[in-house]
Amino acid sequence: MKPWLLLPPKFAHDLSPLGLQLLTAFREARPEKWRPLIWRGLHFENRLGIAGGVDKDGALIENWWSLGVGFVEIGTVTPKAQGPNDGKIIDRDPATGSLWNRMGFPGKGIAIVRENLRDLPLDRATPVFVNIGKNRTTPNEDAAKDYVTCMREIGDLADAFVINISSPNTTGLRDLFKPQNFEPFLQEILQARNELTSAPPLLLKLSPDLEDEDLENVVRAAVRLKLDGFIATNTTLARTPAMHYPKEGGVSGKPLAQQSKEVLKKLIGLLGPDRPGKLIISVGGVMTPEDVMERLTLGADLVQVYTALIYEGPFFFSRVARHANENPL
User: What secondary structure letter does DSSP report for 51?
Assistant: First the structure.
C-alpha cells in the first residue's frame, strides 16, 4: 500500500518533507553498508544516494542519512531565492512509472543553504554534494558568475559541486552546452574553484538529450579542462506516445532508463578504460534494486534515485542494501 500515491502530485510533493521528518524522528543517522567506495578522500559506505532536486535547500540531510543513503546531493541551489515557474510544475503517471516537472530551480538561496550545511555535525555520516545553478533572470553571458558565487559562499562546506546546465526547466540553460559557450563558461568556474582553499571536486550533470557529437565535444572539453567527473543524466524532453504531459518540462522515471543507460555507456567509452580518475554517477530510470546493480555493472561508480522514491517509498535504500548484500559481486 502506497497511500501517498493517492494524493495529488503537488500536494504530496509539498507534504513530503514533513512526512520524512516524522518517519525518521527516532532513527539513527547511519548509512547502510554495502560495496563501499573511497574517491578523492571521500568515503562512501554504499553506492546509492539521492539526486539533486529531492532536497533543494539541504534542510533534510540528516533525515536522509537516517534512511541509509550512501551520499546526498542537495540543490539545485542558486545565489538568490526564487520561486518555481508559473503554472503547473509537477505530475506523475503510475502507468508509465514516470514523473514530469518544470520547477525551474525553486529554493531559498545560497545563504540559507550555507546555514543548513553549517548546522550539520562535523563528523558527517556521508559526503554531501551541492548541485548549483543560475537564477532564471541571469542571462547566459553572466551565468558563470552565479555558479562562482555559490562556490565561494559554501566552498568550505561542500564535499563536491555539481554543475547543472542540463535542466530543461530554465529557459536557454542548455545553450551553455554549445561549443562557443561551454569552454569559456567551464574555464571561469574551474578557475574560481581552484582559488578556493578547499578546492572541492567539480562534476558536470549531462543532458540525456545531447546528440552524440555534442556529447563527445562536451566530454572531451571537460576532460581537457580537468573536470573531476560526470553525472548521467538529467531529465529528458523526450515523450512516448503513452505520455500526456506538456511538451515543456523534464520527464524522469522508467521511460528515461534506456536513454540514461545509453549516455552512461557512451560516456564510459569516451573516457576510456582507465577513466583518468573521473567519478561517474548514473541517475535516470533507476527504479529497482536490480536497476542499481545494473548501473554499477555497466561501470558507474555511484548511483542516484529520485522518481523511485515516489513510486517505491522511502525504504528503497534498505531494500537495495539487502539485495546487494544477498548478491555480492
Answer: P
**In the predicted model, what is the mean pLDDT of the chain?**
96
User: What is d(CA 113, CA 153) in angstroms, rounded to the nearest whole number?
Assistant: 10
Q: Which three cell numbers stand for residue 144?
A: 558563470
DSSP 63-128: HHHHTT-SEEEEEEE-SS-B-PPSS--EEEETTTTEEEE---S-BS-HHHHHHHHHTS-SS-SS-E
How many Å apart are CA 83 and CA 86, to the nearest integer?
Answer: 9
> In this structure, what C-alpha cell is assigned to residue 288?
529497482
End-to-end CA distance of the chain: 32
Cell numbers describing residue 183: 569552454
What is the pTM for the complete model shown? Answer: 0.97
Query: Is the confidence at residue 1, as pLDDT, over 70?
Result: no
Query: Coil, strand, or helix at residue 234?
Result: coil
16 is catalytic: no
DSSP letters along 198-224, please?
S---EEEEEPTT--HHHHHHHHHHHHH
pLDDT in tens, 244-283: 999 999 999 999 999 999 999 999 999 998 788 899 999 9
Spot the catalytic one: 66, 98, 166, 167: 167
- Residue 178: count other Cβ atoms within 10 Å of its Cβ: 13
How far is residue 79's CA from residue 76's CA, in Å, rounded to a whole number? 10
Going by C-alpha positions, the residue among 36, 40, 37 that lies closest to residue 201 is 40
Measured distance CA(319)–CA(102) in Å, rounded: 30
pLDDT digits (tens, 9 = 90+) for 107-119: 999 999 999 999 9
What is the DSSP secondary-structure string of 179-201?
HHHHHHHHHHHHHHHHHSSS---
Q: Tell me the domains of the chain and their CATH numbers.
A: 3-326 (3.20.20.70)
CA angle (277, 278, 281) in 5-degree steps? 135
